[in-house]
Amino acid sequence: MVRFLLARPIAVLMTFLALMVFSVIVFRTLPISLLPPIDVPQILVKVNYPNASPEAIEQNVLSPIREGLMTLGGLEDMDSKAGSEVGTIRLTFDYGTRMELAYIEVNEKIDRLTNSLPSDLSRPQVIRINTNDIPVVRVQVVPKDGFDFTEVSLLTENVLKKRLEQLEGVSLVDINGKKERMITVSPKIAILRGLGMTEENVINAIKYGNEELPGISVEDGQFRYYLRLATRVDSPEDIMKLPVTSSEGVTVDLSTVATVQYETSEPLGYHLFGENEGLVITVHKQAAAKMNELLPKIYEAIEIFRTDYPQVAFDVTQDQSVLLNAGISNLQTSLLFGGLFAFGVLFVFMGNYKTPIIIGLSLPSSLIISFLVFYFFDISINVISLSGLALGLGMLIDNSIIVLDNITRKRKEGLPLFEACVEGVNEVMSALISSVLTTLAVFVPLVFLSGISGALFFDQAVAVASILGVSLLVAFIFLPMLYRFFFRKQPEGQEIQEDSKLFVRILAGYKRLYIKIFAKRKLSFALFVILIPAGLALSLFLETRGLPPIEKTDAVLTVNWNEPIGVAQNRDRVLSLLEALRGDFVKAESDIGVRQFLLFDGESSLQEATLYFLFENQNQKEQQMPHLDNLIQENFPNAVVQIEDAPNAFDQLFASNMPYYEVRWKDLGSKKPIDESIMDVWLGEFPVRQFSRGPGLQKEASVVFRLNAAEMATYGVNPNDLQEKVKRIFGVYGITDIKRFGEITPIKLKAEKRDFEDLLRNSYIKGTEGQEYALNNFIRFEYENHYKFVTADKGGVFQSVYLEENEPTAHNQEILNWGNERNLGISFVGQYFKDRETISELLGILLVAVLLLYFILAAQFESFVQPLVVIFTLPLGIAGAFTVLLLTGTSLNVMSAIGLVVMLGIMVNDAILKIDTINRLRIKYAANNSPGEALEKAMYEAGEIRLKPILMTSVTTILALLPVVFSSGLGADLQRPLVFSVIGGLTIGTFTAMYFVPLAYWALARGKKG
């Protein structure tokens, strides 16, 4: 096949050029995003039920919804949490469930359940969680002094939002911090009572004055007209002109008995940028959009906004393209330095300028053609797939060097140029194919990990497979064709300048050490065998973590004040914190109270706030955030504070809402939360001391109103009238809405802002005889501590504690006994069990990978024993990587693990080629030498033949990665553990493997002989 293709260089060249042209066209259409568009198998159902208690929301809303959703296909788990005025149900599905269909099914079931839910409840909101839901950027909108906040809210909602949504690549624009304008009606109680009127007369007058006839028409001869009531109101002035009539027939203008005016609706949440109140716009991208093209458009639009709307200040925070740009920058750096150092190293080793040029042409061509595979597998260009390409670049250089070196060696042996190209490729073809398959055998099985990890590895596996597959195509066809083209004018028989003076010295040193080691081969082999477990044992001293510690200059502080405060008090506390840190941060933004985001899948309450800080450097962050924590604890001892690095897309994707180890129990008798007083006693007898209360056990102070039914019956007070009266005097009571072309302005009855005891004393209700009585005659109140949340799962209401023990399972039997004594059903859940499941999966996948590796090598060498040489070579590389990680204080994390795969791929390649060469040379020398002499000659010569490609591959890879060690920034922080793994494995591991492979080969051959 190689001979056939090389005999047609023009056809091959045109084919490669055509592939590259198509790849460039395809590359321009590939979506560019931060992460693959992964369907997180979760759906959130959110409920807003004003003035409802957690118990009422659980019993009347969440429980019926849970029962209705129980039959969903693929449903794995379901948890709900009811708080004051809000409730959430989190549905977790089996990974692989088609989430777009699950989302439709959930909505259909919610629609069917609507009739069984309270009539005054707005439709529950269904949110589907997706990696594209993570905003790419947050745009801050802050009104300047003297400008009305509600006008800026309308500008943001009706203009800015729509202009951003028109940008190509934007899927959704979400807003938080809006304030709406409303019309308030404040009754003049004294005048109303003097005229014999009540608030009901005012409410009815406004309702009747804002009525609209629905589709009534009249005929006038041959014409038909639709009726419109002329009394419909549009402004406070219209409302004040409405007539109000008492039961005795007294009629006055509404302006006589009430004050009507425009006001800003009382917010349930605030957004602050710095210490200024404002709005925030989060921009979400389409799955197929290119983030690196979308972000400049957004910045350009913001510059236009600054010109068009000078009354508003704009700024940008939390730009998520930083990670993507870091990944692209790393790939560019790898290509640039890989090409430069490959050229330099090849020149130093070979003294030949043509060979580096050939490799310089093969690297970008392989990379470009790889994007054609991306297109067919529907893979986007993202941080994960880019890391796969970077992972394959080392192998790409390796294959190129090996093929070129072998062709040069064949020419030196006297073969003509064409024959040298054919034989040089054919000789290493099977070995290179095996080395690529073994690399994929180590990596591809990770795709079968369950959950999001497996989905992420799919993109990486496709990227690795594509670049390695293309690299073989380039190495077997394109490289020899280029070699033949560059060396076509060199006369046949002319001596080939293969080795530089430097390499001649290195080769001499290798031979001297080889002779010394093989003089005491048994001792040397024993030392290498001892090094394997000793090196692997270094892993016990390495810190293990998920992602490497990236230098982040931003942080997020989440605080729950754990006190019954309003949102205004919450805002004032946040402002005091910002004032305490004034000048010590670059940017800050805060979301306080209830969030207005459509896609917000977290929990928000009036007592919670989230503060984001951007600092100049990490040192400043490490100084100020603990200071802020201490400040909160000193002034607000009840507050619960959580400080963490600002989440990027990775953190948001992998973040788990699940506690590490949770003990849940259900009352098997009552099916409801256990009374607070009983539960406190039982918790005092709980077998484990180190625990924290779960949401279902957290308490908050509340005021409980109790109606005096006997007094109400005595004085003829209707219970419904009393409840309606309480709704009106506590809060803002909705009367009706003014609707104009999609704009809705609510009209609300405004209550007096007074102490609730005073309101009960000074508010009156009529009995059946028309006599007025103060409300405090029928209502008594008490201050009580009640559960803050009601939690439930598929089996019903539960309460729980979070264990904080190092060995949480040690007390399981004691906890079960504790539950049995109290008629409680006990269950254990948490991330602990998920982690154990993942570890068992990884061990199974690792076993499969090793078996695949063995089968491929056994087929390559046609031996059941020789693959063990390659397998036992790998721990030496791992030991070298662990040594450098330990010396540099680097943790064992995802990136260093990828570095191990890169390094092992190169080491496997070297070992396979060396064993393949020894096997061929043994056959060559077997005719004229004894088996022992043939083996010795073959091992010695194979080491000499393979020394140059091994050294050049290792040196070029190490030098290409070395600049990352001395770089700074997010990209360098992310890649540095990978670099240390590769450098450690290729320096220590490759050096030992150069001598270990022939020693192990000798030991196995000798054992087989014996």
Automatic annotation (TrEMBL):
In which domain of life is the source organism classified? Answer: Bacteria
State a single Gene Ontology molecular function. xenobiotic transmembrane transporter activity
Q: Does the keyword Transmembrane apply?
A: yes
Q: Which Gene3D superfamilies match?
A: Multidrug efflux transporter AcrB pore domain, Multidrug efflux transporter AcrB pore domain like, Multidrug efflux transporter AcrB TolC docking domain, DN and DC subdomains, Multidrug efflux transporter AcrB transmembrane domain
Keyword terms: Membrane, Transmembrane, Transmembrane helix
One Pfam annotation, family name?
ACR_tran
Task: Give the residue spans that cross the bilayer.
Answer: 12-30, 331-350, 357-377, 383-407, 428-449, 461-483, 523-542, 842-861, 868-888, 894-913, 947-966, 978-1004
Transmembrane listed as a keyword: yes
Give a GO cellular-component term: plasma membrane
Protein name from the UniProt record: RND multidrug efflux transporter
Species for this entry: Indibacter alkaliphilus (strain CCUG 57479 / KCTC 22604 / LW1)
